Amino acid sequence: MSNGTDVSREKLATDLRVVIADAEELLRATAGQMGEKAVVARERIQESLRAAKDKLSRAEEIVIDKTKAAARATDDYVHDHPWGAVGIAAAVGLVIGMLISRR
Hints:
With about 100 residues, the protein is mainly alpha-helical.
């Protein structure tokens, strides 16, 4: 996954949390309205919010699991190829240093 995709997913998750919080606040604010349509709408919204929260939780668990797997794979690679890892780190440091010095 690219860094841009990770940022987009984080922003989407953050935006979804904000929408859920806003919807919950709206439900609390309209709790006193007892019209039949309002009651039905509130129930549908509450069910939708529960489903959204569940999906968000599952998505976060998947991201955490994938992150842990990537960290384990990286750790295994570094342990199996220590000099290769040092070479890669040196090359990345050199490139970053060259980019910074251009400014």
